[in-house]
Amino acid sequence: MTAGNRGGEPRRILIDCDPGHDDAIAIMLAHGDPGVQLVGITTVGGNQTLDKVTHNARVVATVCGMTGVPIAAGSAVPLIRPIRTAAAIHGESGMDGPVLPEPTVPLDDRHGVDLIIDTVMDNPPGSITLVPTAPLTNIALAVRKCPAIVERVAEVVLMGGGYSKGNVTPAAEFNIAVDPEAAQIVFTAPWQVTMVGIDLTHQALATPAVQQRISDIGTPAAQFVVDLLAAYGANYRAEQGFGDPPVHDPCAVARVIDPSVMTVRPAHVEVELAGRLTAGMTVCDFLGRDGARLDTDVAITLDAPAFWDLVVDAITAIGRP
Ligand code: BDR
Ligand code: CA
What we know:
By secondary structure, this protein is an alpha/beta fold. The protein has 13 helices and nine strands.
């Protein structure tokens, strides 16, 4: 177990994302919390098309006043399957709700897969943690293009999957369902993976009290989050019947900042690729049948108050001199 840095050197993380309301909050948590240092952002087609989510990543960086963090566009489409987006939740822009400022942060001219590889290979072994919060296409391609990253990465803490349920189908969660083949590559590579799935993230509900705390911060960055959550919450209510919206992606960042924010159980995880009803399901074997190694930590229970304290503190810190 390598997660955790409270009081120590900040953990260096690269977020591979598809902003996305909750991806945006994940980026803001990583930017605002002193426990992690964001060293790169890569984007992948998912919640919306690659051009839209890449634009949105630059918007979020601009809202944060972020400088010196490379942002690179990665894969537009999954390895094999056609892309599917989540416009019903994230809107036409991929981040509907707030007025989106014109980004002032440049786009790195490398492909996202190359930024991932460069970041891992140019830093000391064991110093970079990958935090994917989107379909796993870029991460799988990076493994295939440069297998040496696998033993060099500290760990992979991803938002995706679920051990008991799906959200886009009864069996499959969106990030895995979009590119199951990529997910299978990531789960079966010999590195430490933590799967922060929807069993966990459905405990990270942005209640009215949470939204009020963020609103009370009173900064432009906080207002941006308030506006994100208003639109996201309305869509979650209409589409999936949630009273308060689950804010998935920051949970993975929170796990790196403070592992005690959630409990995990070791399991062997593989992805169903062929099932007519179950494609994209993360099949979690907690018993290690037939000698399967329990090599993935599966997130179980969230300390929601501690999680929201991290998020509120990080948003408060953004824009502070
Ligand atoms: C995941 O899917 C996306 O819509 C969210 O950004 C999150 O990464 C939740 O299933
Ligand atoms: Ca996402």
